[in-house]
Amino acid sequence: LMKLDILYRTCSRVNTFTGHPRFINVPKSEVIIRCLNSLLNSCSFAQSYDISITVLDDNSDEETILALYKLLKKYSNISSKILNIEGTGNGASLKANFEYARKNCQELIYFCEDDYLHDSSAIKEMLDTYYEIIKYTENGLLIIHPCDYPDRYREPYDSLILPGSKRHWRTVMHTTGTILLPIQVLENYCDNFIALANYGIDPKISEDNTINMVYRKIMCISPIPSLTVHLQYKSTLSPFIDWQKWWDKNKVY
Questions:
Q1: What pairs with residue 8 in β-bridges?
Q2: What is the per-residue pLDDT across 48-58, written as a single tens digit (0 to 9) for each?
Q3: Rounded distance, CA 38 to CA 122, Å?
Q4: Which is nearest to 9 in space by CA: 44, 67, 54?
Q5: Positions of E strands within the chain
Q6: 108-113 and 4-10 as β-strands: parallel, antiparallel, unpaired?
Q7: Over 145-205, what HEC string results?
Q8: Is 8 helix (H, G, I), strand (E, B) or coil?
Q9: What would the pLDDT profile of 109-140 be if each residue is shown by its tens digit?
Q10: Choice between 175 and 1, residue whose per-residue pLDDT is larger
Q11: How confident is the model at residue 43 (pLDDT cuts 50, 70, 90)?
């Protein structure tokens, strides 16, 4: 089984990338810590896999950094570290994310943003399903986006439905920056990923003309029902998921 490197991008200074208020009215640090707790908890249910987590932080306040260290220490069975990125902003963070992965990761990578709550079974199911479904891919490559987004049903497109380890998965043609993939995909489509680092800097750049182009060539799948919840806006909440229950369960301090 391949090693999984999780790269968790954090920034307590910016509430949402778009600047609109988050639907859940708490400090960003609270979102970061609860989401990280859910991720670490999920990793602890996947102990048959070799998993490490690197927090790539964009100049968060000292209190948040201390809370991150404290939480990682609680899950001492999972290899972890915190690095502060050079520069600041979503673009610098994305660039650091992809460059770190290219230099330091050899097998599977899970790029994870700091406002996704994870189901307890998320990491194990993602990995089990990866090895199950990769057998059906033409090129032996697969990308997993662990969130079932509601807009896919408002503007539906044709999808293959595939059986995973515990639920069905569908092929998708667009994602956010929270994705699991093998290093070969990052290397083969490096230009697409590096271009995404200009998102928010160059108004012409978005997921649509960068990473979403990759899914025309490499199969990308997401779960039905969702394994993560994006705590951004009411419009991003996955259908049939009790996000409040997940949120309450992951309270840390």
A1: 55, 112
A2: 999 999 999 99
A3: 9
A4: 54
A5: 4-10, 51-57, 79-84, 108-113, 116-118, 143-144, 161-163, 168-171, 179-182, 220-224, 228-230
A6: parallel
A7: CCCCCCHHHHCCCCCCEEECCCCEEEECCCCCCCEEEEHHHHHHCHHHHHHHCCECCECCC
A8: strand
A9: 999 999 999 999 999 999 999 999 998 898 99
A10: 175
A11: very high
Residue 90 has pLDDT above 90, yes or no: no
Cβ 14 vs Cβ 28: under 8 Å = yes
Whether 150 and 238 have beta carbons less than 8 Å apart is answered as: yes
The percent of residues in the chain predicted with pLDDT above 90, rounded, is 86
The residue type found at 90 is N
Helix (H, G, I), strand (E, B) or coil at 229: strand
Can you tell me the distance from the alpha carbon of 141 to that of 105, in angstroms, rounded to the nearest whole number? 16
pTM of the model: 0.96
CA–CA separation, 156 vs 203, rounded Å?
26
Amino acid of residue 148: D
Q: Work out the mean pLDDT of the chain and round it to a whole number.
A: 94
Give Cα 110 to chain centroid, integer Å: 6
